[in-house]
């Protein structure tokens, strides 16, 4: 099982256009939770995060935590190797970059 995370904008004709599409294993939920970014990524609707701009500060803070204490967060690596710190940080960085580039984009995720 995995998380599919999308940022979606409207084109000139009002049609949806996916500007960011990322996928990551659910095995990283505990790491995301400990870093404070689980809700922003896995359950944005529960926190009323609708637009990319709504999660920028949350992602920035979470990434700072992840990068400041990598050894702590690596304790939450999946024992089977499917879900590692080394994969999660670039995933979160990519989403943050997309949010900054498209702050008005709609957040969508599939779990």
General description of the model:
With 111 residues, the protein is of the alpha+beta class. It has one domain. Helices cover 42% and strands 22% of the residues. It has 5 helices and 3 strands. It has helices at residues 29-35, 38-42, 56-68, 70-74, 85-101; strands at 2-10, 16-25, 106-110. It has a 3-stranded antiparallel β-sheet, covered by helices on one side. Helix 3 (56-68) runs antiparallel to helix 5. The longest helix is centred in the last third of the chain and has 17 residues, at 85-101. It is globular and about 45 Å long.
Strand order of the biggest β-sheet: 2-1-3
Name the overall outline: globular
Helix and strand succession? EEHHHHHE
Averaging pLDDT over every residue, what do you get?
97
Number of helices: 5
Residue share in β-strands: 15-25%
Structural class: alpha+beta
Radius of gyration over C-alpha positions, nearest whole angstrom: 14 Å
- Major sheet summary line: 3 strands, antiparallel
Helix share of residues? 40-55%
Number of strands: 3
Low-confidence stretches: none
User: What is the number of independent domains?
Assistant: 1
How widely separated are the two ends?
8 Å
């Amino acid at each position: 099982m995995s998380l599919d995370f999308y940022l979606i904008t409207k084109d000139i004709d009002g049609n949806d256009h996916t500007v960011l599409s990322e996928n990551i294993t659910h095995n990283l939920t505990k790491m995301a939770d400990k870093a404070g970014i689980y809700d922003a990524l896995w359950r944005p609707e529960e926190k009323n995060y609708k637009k990319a701009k709504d999660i920028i500060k949350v992602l920035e803070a979470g990434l700072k935590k992840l990068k400041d204490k990598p050894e702590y967060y690596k304790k939450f690596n999946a024992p089977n190797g499917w879900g590692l710190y080394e994969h999660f940080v670039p995933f979160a960085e990519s989403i943050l970059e997309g949010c900054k580039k498209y702050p008005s984009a709609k957040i969508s995720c599939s779990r």
